[in-house]
Every structure is written in C-alpha cells, then in structure tokens.
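ARCHIVE CARD
CATEGORY: sequence design from structure
SOURCE FIELD: tokenized fold
FIELD CONTENT:
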C-alpha cells in the first residue's frame, strides 16, 4: 500500500521540558537525585491510561510515576531495590503496600495485578562505562559488563511483558551517554534489546533545559505487546 508521507498521521515526537522536580528531596538523598520530573510523567499517564487503571514502575526510585499515577486516580504498583528510597516513596503513596522493596530481576516471583501502563527509567550504568560521570546507584547485571546489563534489562522487561494486559504500553525513558569524547548509545541499545520482547512503536524526544549525561535530550520509548 502506498502512503503519502505528507498526509499520513504523525506522532507528536518532540517536547521541551524543564528538568527539575517540584519536591525537594531530604538531605540524605542530596547528590543522589535521579528522578524524572512530574511534568514528564503526567501527560504520559493521562494519554496512555484511564482512571482506575493499573500503572507500574519496575524501577520506582523516589516514586514519581507512582505518586503522579495515584494523584491522577490510577492504581500504582512498583518495585524498588533500595530500601531507603522505597521507604521514602511509600511514605508519599496512598497505597504504600503496592510498592515492593525488591529486585526487578525477580519480578515474576512477586504478585502484581495485570497492568495497563508501565512508565519507568532504568538505572544508568555510568560509573562502570563512563568513569568521568558518577552516579551512586548500581545497575542490574553491570558486574559482568555492559552487555550483561543490557541483557539484564531485556530479561526484566520480558517479565514486565508478562504482567501487561494485551493493550498495555511500556514507556522507557533513557538517553545516550556522552563523556570525555566517548558516546555510549544506551537508549538505542535498550530499544534494540527490549524490541526482542515487545513491539517498539517509536520514540518521543524530550529536550531538557539542561544537560543530562552529556546531551540535552533523552528518549521516551514506547512499546506494546507483540501481536
Ligand atoms: C533512574 S532511577 C528511577 C527514578 C524514578 N524514575 C524517579 O523519578 O524517582 C532507577 C531506580 O532503579 C533502582 N534499581 C536499580 N536496580 C534495581 C533492581 N534490580 N530492582 C529494582 N530497582 C532497582 C535504583 O535504586 C533507582 O532508584
């Protein structure tokens, strides 16, 4: 079938956003802030889910996805491996029992309801692959190298697929990393790996008002269950 590219339906693929969160983190987390902003998550949750739907984050962090989802009338569930972060996030949730402090590599061993939407940003392995950039969080699988980390994300997102309803979407926010002349195509490696488990529907480019790991933009990658 021939399509006229000028008249075909196009996705809105480009958004400019301020890269800051409204809520200040407690002193103990200063220097450890890897949240995405509420204003990034809110339109995604509104677009891809409805009131009463289940929204999930396998790397819940400080709970941006979960708390915004609850504020919008969704049921929020998640996993976070860091006990202090999980405690912080639970204290801000209306259904704190829905956040499990656990390892998303073992997602299938936990009980979650079927989900309508997952919105997440995985931990970046920057300490290992780009020593000139430092963050404090560890990344699953990175102890055996970058490829192992990417495979581990694939393994985790395959388990997310297992709890997705047929029409559910998975949205992963990730950027490429640039440091000291070296570029690690992290976002594209994640897209390629996760595409083996789910159907890649395209990306939206988020242009931030400041640099994030060497670039001023990240990708918001949308996946659906393979049909
Ligand atoms: C980029 S942060 C997510 C931040 C979140 N989007 C927010 O706005 O707060 C990634 C999170 O994944 C967590 N994490 C790392 N490995 C994990 C694992 N194997 N299972 C669950 N969580 C993990 C880290 O502790 C970190 O909080």
């Amino acid at each position: 079938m021939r399509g006229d590219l000028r008249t075909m339906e196009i996705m809105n693929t480009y958004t400019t956003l301020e890269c800051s969160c409204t809520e200040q983190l407690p002193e103990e987390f200063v220097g450890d802030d890897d949240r995405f902003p509420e204003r990034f998550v809110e339109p995604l949750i509104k677009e891809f889910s409805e009131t009463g739907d289940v929204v999930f984050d396998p790397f819940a962090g400080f709970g941006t996805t979960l708390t915004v989802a609850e504020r919008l009338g969704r049921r929020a569930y998640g996993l976070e491996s860091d006990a202090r972060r999980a405690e912080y996030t639970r204290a801000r949730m209306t259904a704190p029992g829905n956040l499990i402090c656990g390892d998303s590599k073992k997602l299938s061993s936990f009980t979650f309801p079927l989900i309508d939407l997952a919105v997440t940003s995985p931990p970046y392995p920057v300490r290992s692959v780009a020593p000139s950039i430092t963050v404090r969080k560890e990344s699953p699988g990175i102890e055996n190298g970058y490829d192992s980390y990417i495979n581990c994300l694939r393994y985790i997102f395959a388990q997310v697929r297992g709890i997705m309803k047929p029409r559910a979407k998975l949205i992963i926010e990730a950027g490429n990393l640039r440091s000291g002349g070296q570029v690690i195509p992290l976002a594209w490696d994640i897209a390629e790996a996760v595409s083996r488990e789910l159907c890649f529907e395209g990306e939206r480019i988020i242009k931030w008002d400041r640099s994030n790991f060497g670039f001023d933009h990240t990708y918001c990658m949308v996946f659906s269950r393979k049909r």
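CARD ANNOTATION: The pocket of S-adenosylmethionine is lined by residues 34-36, 59, 61-64, 79-82, 85, 103-105, 121, 123, 137, 140 (CB under 6 Å). Helices lie at 38-48, 64-71, 83-90, 126-129, 146-162, 186-194.
SHELF: design records, drawer C
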